[in-house]
Amino acid sequence: AVPVALVAGLSRAAQFGVLVKGARPLEAMAHIRTLILDKTGTLTDGRPQITSVLPHADLPEAEVLRLAAALDQGSKHPVAQALVAEAQARGLHLPVPAGLTEHAGEGVSGRVDDRQVLVGGADFVAARIGATVSETALPMAADLDAGAVLVAVAVDGRLAGHLVMADPLREGAAGLLQALRRQGIARLLLATGDRAEVARRVTAGLGLDGVRAGLSPDQKVLLVLSERKNGPVMMVGDGVNDAPALAAADVGVAMGARGAAASAEAADVVLLVDHLDRLRPGLEIARRARGIAI
Ligand code: ADP
Ligand code: MG
Q: Which residues form the signal peptide (predicted)?
């Protein structure tokens, strides 16, 4: 039987919008040593705004955006949703894509208007079209603001353009991380599929113990497993690409309000409201429930 204090803890957590899937994760939450945070959609707001569209080939700006957004219509990734919103705001008609393949945490490929289109991170697109990263990352130095997210678009195997997006930290992120340390989290890490430059700029001044960038879903799992050697690990994420790492952690936490369904399924804890700061009452309630139960 589950001790009454744990049942009360589960119900109290739910009142804060923290869905804990049972007594085991609630108990495990009381002992977390290392917290690993995903970047896009978890530590950042996850509603990126497009700041510029940079065509490289002979295609006009609107055409680069239209092809990319059409392809990304079926994706739940925050970057994809930003593309579609911008295309709609510009009144662009988006045809239905064919032959879609989504590569979790990397990008999407498929056909739009009988053209082969590829949208995703600079490294991913470069690898797929056989270009070098420096070619696809050309506009970075000149056009990227601090922390800007860079998305590359290829059409029929050639680089067609870049989209630059701003994705700021969640409000109060710095204060939240300090508070979590006071609650006993000894080690704070960032794990992202995005580029190292973006990750470093976005997290500057947060006092993290480490930033791991360019990670595939499998590499996020390996990070969790290697950190578990030092004590219990909590991993927080929102994407399809985070799901395996959430499952590998002692406590996986999904950003449930706008995150991917796969991440909520893989997680032990789901934040039903879109506030990362719900981690605080979550940890507090877990510690108290344990104190009473013992
Ligand atoms: P994080 O791990 O920080 O949440 P992701 O791994 O989800 O970040 O995404 C990293 C990068 O991959 C994004 O910044 C974007 O460039 C690219 N990307 C991933 N999925 C898509 C998509 N559906 N459409 C366009 N770009 C994508
Ligand atoms: Mg994410």
A: none
Ligand 1 atom having least distance to the Cα of 150:
16
Alpha carbon of 150 to ligand 1 centroid (Å): 9
CB 257 within 8 A of CB 277: no
What value does the mean pLDDT take over residues 48-58? Answer: 87
Q: Which ligand is nearest to the CA of 123?
A: 1
What proportion of the chain, given as a percentage, has pLDDT over 90?
Answer: 75
CATH number for the domain spanning 144: value is 3.40.1110.10
Say what the ipTM of the complex is: 0.95
Residue 142 has pLDDT above 60, yes or no: no
Name the residue type at position 199: A
Q: Tell me which of 141, 166, 191 is where a domain ends.
A: 166
Higher-confidence position of 213 and 195: 213
- Annotated active-site residue 38? The verdict is yes
- Same-domain check for residues 211 and 259: yes
| Alpha-helix residue ranges (DSSP H) falling in 58-103 | 61-71, 78-89
Query: From CA 288, how far away is CA 85, in angstroms rounded?
Result: 43
> In terms of domains, do 58 and 141 share one?
yes
Distance CA 150, CA 141 (A): 11
Query: Residue 1 has what pLDDT?
Result: 67
Total domain count, the chain: 2
Ligand 1: residue whose CA is nearest its atom 16: 121
For residue 167 and ligand 1, the question of a CB distance below 6 A is answered with: no
In the listed set 166, 184, 214, which residue is the last one of a domain according to the structure?
Answer: 166
Residue nearest to atom 4 of ligand 1 (CA): 40
The pLDDT, as a whole number, for residue 131 is: 76
